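User: I want to check something. If I give you two sequences, will you return the structure for each one separately, not as a complex?

Assistant: Yes, each is folded on its own. Here is the first sequence with its structure:
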Amino acid sequence: MRVFWRRPSADLALVAGLVYLNQALFTVYVLREHGGDVSFVASYLPSGWFALADGPAMRAFASHVPAPGLLAPSVLRVQAFLELPFVLLAYGVVLRRLSVRWYRRMLDGPPLWAASATYTTVFCLVEQHFSNPYTDADIAIRIASAVITPLWIGWTTRHDPAAERPLGVVGLVAFGAFTWALGQLVLTVYDTALLYNLGHLPGRLPSALVASAVLVGARVVADRYGERGEPGVAVRTVTAGLRWALVLFFVPALAVRYGVNLGLALPSAAAGLAVCVAAALLAVREALRGQNRVRVAGWCGQMARAAGVGGVAGLVARHAASDAYYEAALLRSAAVAFLAAVLVCAGTDRPCAGTDRLSRPADAARRRS
C-alpha cells in the first residue's frame, strides 16, 4: 500500500477525488445558500460552466448538511489549489508510462519547479482575464499551490520504486491506448468537475467507463507484454520523437494551450511547432546514429509511409464523431495516427532487421540477452 501511494497515478486519483468532493459540496452550498441559483458567480465566467447536479438525491443530501454557509470556499477557491497538481500529475503519469528515467528527471528538481511556475503564471493570467470578486484570493491560492505542489510531487517521485523498462512494439501500442484513455478521463474531470458541471456526469459516464476499461487493459498488456516486439530503426524513431516531445513540451505546455484563449494564437502555434521540430531532429539523430546510407534511405521511405498512413488515419478519426470539446477530437486523432504510424513502422522494420545497427548500448545489451 505504501508503494502504491508513491505512484503518480494514485496521487492523480486522489486529487480527482478531492475535486469531485468539492463539486458535491459546492452544489450543497448553492442549493442551500442561493436556492440553486448560480448567477452570483456564473455571471463572471463564460458559458459552459455551472451545470448543477441538483436532482432529488442531491437535494435530499444537501438538506441534511449542517452549516452550509461554511462551504463558501468550494466556490472557485478549492479548484484554484487543486488544478495545478491535477495537470502536473496527469503529465507525470503519461511520461512515467513511456520512460521512468525521464519521468524522474522531469517530475523532480528544476524542470518540475519551472513547469509549476509557468503553469501557475498561465492560470493567474486566465484568472485576470475573467476578473471577478474571487480573483485576488484565487491568485494567492494558486501561488501557494505552486510552492506546495512541487514539494509533494518531487517527494513522491524520489520515492517511486519503478524501474526503467524497454518498450517493444506491443508496449508502444499499449502506451498509445493508455494515453488516449487517460486523456479522455482528464477531459471528463475538466468538464464535469473543474468547470463545475457535475450535472454533465451522467451523460459522460458511459464514455468514461469505456476509457477506464481501455486504461486498465492497456496497463495490463504493457506490464505483461510491453517488451515484446523488438523495435527497429523506424519504431525507435517514433519512440524517441514521442519521448523528446513530452520532455520538451513539459514546461511550456499550458502556455501553448491557453495562448489561443489569451489572444496569442500565432506565438502559441510557433512555440508548439518549435517543440515538434526540435523533438523530431533529436529523435532522428538518436535513431539513425551509426546507420549506413542504404539503411537511412530505407528509413526515409518507411517514415514517409508511416506519416502518410498515420495522417490519413488521424484525419478520419478526427471527423469520426462530434465532440463537445475540440481537445477530445485532437486526442482521438493523435492517438489513432500514432498507433497507425507505429504499426506501419513495425511492419516495415521487419524486412530491414538484418541491416539495422543498434544506436544505443542499452539496445545492444538487450538484443545480446
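And separately, the second sequence with its own structure:
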Amino acid sequence: MRKSLLLRSPARRRALQRLSALSAASLLPLRAGEAFGSTASTLNALPRVALVVGNSRYKEASLKNPANDAAAIGDNLKKMGFSVISQLDTGKAAMENAIRSYSEQLARSKGVGLFYFAGHGLQVSWRNFLVPVDAVLDRVEDIPAQTVDLAALLGGIGKAGNPMNIVILDACRDNPFGGTLKSGKGLSQMDAPIGTLLAYATAPGNVASDGSGANGLYTENLLREIHTPEAKIEDIFKRVRLSVRRASQGQQIPWESTSLEEDFYFLPPASVKKLSEEELERQFAEEAAVWEKAQQGSQVAVVEDYIRRYPSGRFSELAQVRLDRMLAKQGEKKVSLVNTAANPFTKGTGVIDLDYRVGDRYVFRTLDLLTNVEGRRLINTVSEVTEDKVIYNNGALVTDLLGNVIKRPDGASFGPSQMFISEYHLGKKWSTRYAIHFAKGGQDTVELDLKVVARETITVPAGTFDCFCIEGNGWVLGIGQQTDWKFWLAPDKVNRAVAMETWWRKGSRIVRSDRQELVAYTRAG
C-alpha cells in the first residue's frame, strides 16, 4: 500500500467533512423510498389555486384546440378542489392582470399553485415567451413588448412564497409568425425553480401537435391521467409521456424538470399508513415479477405495462432503455432533446453514450477515506460488447450498457440494478434495489434512493470534467447497514463514473468509506 497523493486535495477535504457530518448526525432508520418524500405530504391539505390560459384566436396563425384544452383543464381542476382563474383567448394586458391576481392569491393562501398555458410559445436566445392573442410579431424586437416572458412569470410566482408550484406548458408549436421573425424551434430547456414542477408538452427544441380531436394530444392524455386515484404527480406525467410518445410514434415526447421534495396528488389517498416490512417485501416481489416478465419478453406491450404500473419503480429506468431499443428496432424515429451548454437557464441534460468499443480502457484508483491509504488500481479493458452487456478483462467484470455491475472480479453477481441510468438532469430522482450474490455463498440486498443534486467541475488524475453530481442513500438490508453514495458523471466525455465515494455505517459509526476516481481513459479506434 502507498499513501495517496490525493490526501491534501479539495476532494479529500470534502470527503472528510462529509464523514464528520455523518458521524455526528442523528441517524434515523429510513428505508429507501422514504428519503425523497414518499410518506404522506402536507401539500395535499393546502389550498389549491390555478390560473388556466388557453389562446386559440390569434390574429395570425390561429389554433384549433388551446381554448378547448384550457377550458377542460379548468373544469377538471375545479372538481379537484382548485380555485380556478380562467382566461381564454386573452390579450397581453388581460393575461398580465390575471398573472398578477394569481400571484396575489398564492401569496395570501400559501397553497399549491398550478399555471397552465396552451397556445403559441417562442424561444429567442434561450428565453421562452408565451404569446397573447393580440400579439403582432414581425421582428425579434417585437417579442418582449408583446409577449409574456416565462422566466419573469416564474420569478413573479416565486415571490408568492408558497411551497409548491406546477407549471404546465402546452405551448411548443412551431413559430408560425411571418416577417423577419426568426426564433428557435419549440421552447428552450429551463431548470425548475425550487418547489416547482415544470412540464412541457414535448422535449425542449421540438414541437407539439395541436391534435385532431377536441383536445391537443398532450392535454388529452393529461386529462385522463390526472383522474387516476392516489397517483403521485410525477407518476402522472411519466404516464402522459409514455402515452403521447406512443400515439405520436416518437415525434412528441413530453418533458419535465422538477425540484419537488414532497409528493402531491391531484386525487390524494384518504389516508396514508406506514407499510410493514412484510408489506414492503410483498410489493417489491410483485414489481420484480412484472419486471422479470418485461425483461425476458420480446413484446413492447409487456415493457409498456411495467412502465405504466411502476412509472417510478425500481426498474423503471432500465425499462425505458429497453423500450427505446425495442421501438428503435421497429423504426421509431424518436425526437431528441435539444441541449446546449450555451443556455443560461439550465444546467443541461446528460445522455449516456451506449457505444462501447472493444479495446476501450479505463483506469481507476481507490482510496480508503478512513485510513488515507491508496489501494490497488483497477484497469478495465473492454473485451466484448453484446446487445445488452459490456464485458471487461475477458469476463472478469461485466456491466450493462449503463455501467451497472452484473459480475464483479471477485465472482459476486448482481441482480438488475439502476444505480446508473441513461439520462441526467438537475433534480432527477430515482430508486433501485438489487441483490448481490457472493461467490462463496450468501447474499446482500441493497436499496437506494438517488438524486441529481448539482452540476460541478471536478478534477481527477484523468483531467477536469464538467459533471452531474448524484447523491444516494439507503440500506444494505441483510446486515442492517446504512449506506451513502456520491458520484460524478460527465456523459458527454466518458461513459463511466469520473469519481465515486461510498460510506457504510452501523448506527452512528462509519465502518467503511472509499473513493474511486478515473486515472486514465482511452477510446479504441
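Because they were folded independently, the notes below concern the second chain alone. The chain is about 25% helix and 30% strand. Residues 1-40 have pLDDT under 50 and may be disordered.
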